[in-house]
């Protein structure tokens, strides 16, 4: 069992569902983003998904895209990000960090180097939503060699044979996109009805032995509660960023407490 999966199993002994929060590294500044991550870890979130920004984040909606573009007004580099995240991981051992980005900046950094440095900084998983598993042999090998989990994504429109392939190869956890579309939006168009979501997660469980994390569009406590017993992690992204933009850290923490406590 990987360290990521072991952490989830341990936490699930005392929690009905784990919390994962999403933060864009460098937004609105590097210092403020790191301070926000530290606050979230102090408040007891189980995971932080840290997004290293990229200019064309194709899986993300308007809130996260805007944050990425704002962050990229600064000079950011992957090595500094990893080192700073390592300090947070050391300071707050009751939470875990997963690094998310897109293939371009990570490929330029180097896949072997990425996995090695992530392991050295106690980052337990990597998410690259635009890297297909079929083209990820070197990436998977680097992760395996360094005991890092590559986290794969499935969606409600993933073909059944591909869903089975991704689910059966998942380690750490499998990121289950709750509905069609990009992050953040929860309009009726593209929204998966709860009965459909239940069927979708049940279908995934037929193939996946890894824990399931569910994200995209989670904004209400009822949505979190509906996942209990069907998934292991609820992932809060755009809603948390919107709350932070509205009222800073206090508004973000209030949302987390409203949803998870």
**Which regions have little confidence, pLDDT < 50, spanning 5+ residues?**
181-192
Q: Report how far the terminal alpha carbons are from each other.
A: 29 Å
> How many strand elements?
9
Biggest sheet strand order reads 5-4-3-2-1-9-8-7-6
CATH architectural group? Alpha-Beta Barrel
- What is the third-level CATH name, the topology? TIM Barrel
The number of helical elements comes to 11
Q: How many discrete structural domains?
A: 1
Q: State the secondary-structure class.
A: alpha/beta
Mean pLDDT: 93
Shape: globular
Q: Largest sheet at a glance? A: 9 strands, parallel
Tell me the CATH superfamily. Aldolase class I
Per DSSP, what share of the residues sits in E-state strands of 2 or more residues?
Answer: 5-15%
Rg over CA atoms: 17 Å
Query: In percent, how helical is the residue content?
Result: 40-55%
The ordered H/E elements are: HEHEHHEHHEHEEHEHEHEH
Active site: 49, 60
Family: Belongs to the TrpA family.
Catalytic activity: (1S,2R)-1-C-(indol-3-yl)glycerol 3-phosphate + L-serine = D-glyceraldehyde 3-phosphate + L-tryptophan + H2O
EC number: 4.2.1.20
């Amino acid at each position: 069992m990987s360290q990521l999966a072991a952490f989830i199993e341990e936490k699930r002994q005392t929690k009905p569902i784990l919390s994962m929060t999403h933060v864009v590294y460098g937004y609105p500044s590097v210092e403020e983003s790191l301070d926000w991550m530290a606050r979230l870890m102090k408040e007891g979130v189980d995971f932080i998904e840290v997004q290293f920004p990229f200019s064309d984040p194709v899986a993300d909606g308007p809130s996260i895209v805007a944050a990425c573009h704002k962050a990229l007004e600064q000079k950011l580099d992957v090595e500094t990000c990893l080192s700073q995240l390592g300090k947070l991981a050391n300071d707050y051992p009751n939470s875990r960090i997963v690094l998310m980005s897109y293939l371009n900046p990570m490929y330029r950094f180097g896949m072997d180097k990425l996995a090695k440095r992530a392991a050295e900084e106690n980052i337990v998983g990597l998410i690259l939503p635009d890297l297909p598993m079929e083209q990820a042999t070197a990436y998977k090998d680097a992760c395996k060699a360094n005991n890092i989990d590559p986290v794969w994504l499935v969606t409600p429109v993933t073909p059944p044979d591909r869903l089975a392939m991704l689910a059966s190869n998942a380690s750490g956890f499998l990121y289950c996109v709750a509905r069609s579309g990009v992050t953040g939006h929860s309009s009726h168009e593209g929204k998966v009805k709860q009965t459909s979501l239940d069927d979708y997660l049940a279908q995934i469980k037929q193939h996946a032995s890894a824990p399931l994390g569910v994200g995209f569009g989670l904004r209400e406590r009822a949505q979190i509660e509906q996942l209990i017993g069907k998934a292991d992690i609820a992932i809060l992204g755009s809603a948390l960023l919107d709350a932070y933009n509205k009222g800073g850290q206090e508004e973000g923490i209030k949302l987390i407490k409203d949803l998870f406590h």
